[in-house]
Amino acid sequence: MASTKLKTLILLDVLREETDEERRMSVPDLVAALNRRGVPAERKGIYRDLEALREHGEDVVQTPTGYYLRKRALDTAELRLLISAVQAAYFITPGRSEKLMDKLLSLESRRRAQEMRSQFNMGGVKCDNDEVLRAIDALNLAIASRRQVSFLYVKFDPERRLVRQRGGERYVVSPYALIWMLDRYYLVANMEGRDDLTHFRLDRMQKVRFEQGPWRHFSQVCAYRSRFDPADYAKKCVNMFGDRTRLVTIRCENALAGDVFDRFGANVTVGRAGDGHFTAVLNAAAGEGLLAWVAQWGARMEIVSPEDVRLAMKERMEKAAALYRT
To answer: What is the CATH number of domain 240-322?
Structure first.
């Protein structure tokens, strides 16, 4: 009985690995495939096993040219999305990216997996900090259990050397959320001794560990009360620069409407400004990130209010212009 069950499972492996909508296998093909794997099989037994797989919920399709497995854990479009995300994620090392892609492609038939592999290149810009995935596990546990963590934090100097910040002193924080933005993964936390939120890139964190100190509730350092909302926070926090959230009015060319909605959501309050322009009221962190985001559009976008934010933008642009006057 046990050998019969094993044969059925191996037959399922054959269907997963060797069949798809464009590559079907007849019963003799399936018998031969099982024999190649050292499993004795005969036609009647294959029919029984195929029926058992269907009864178990496997989407085994019979056609005039043979059988194939149609429904999988992920369809091809979903696999492409996930592999593209792995490819784009800076914080995943090249080696880890390849392993993740292998795991994802193992859900497809070999033929399709080979086709898809040839279309993806993991050779983009990647970090070399292999601690990131372990840090994600530790930080998720710390967030769920409301525990303090500490870590070392590094940055590159002009000689491409990683330099530990604060002279190698550990950062002690109360963690609230992990946010993926601009192909980077960030920890949002409150640093011990401060009354605000700080962002840390996970690829720059080393030696994450739990601490025994008291976890500080986020309601003491931000506007959230019962639940920290990562999606809402990321929408307001431009380019992962944190600052006090304010209502900022901008005036833009109509052609930039899609860019505004992409960044701040389609529920932004807008109004017509005439002459091919519109205004938008943003609920955003009015700091360096917002100024940099507006600056990229040059004369096509301006900050209208508040006055102090408009003045900060003006000073920023004047300093940039001064660099090119000589």
So the answer is: 3.30.70
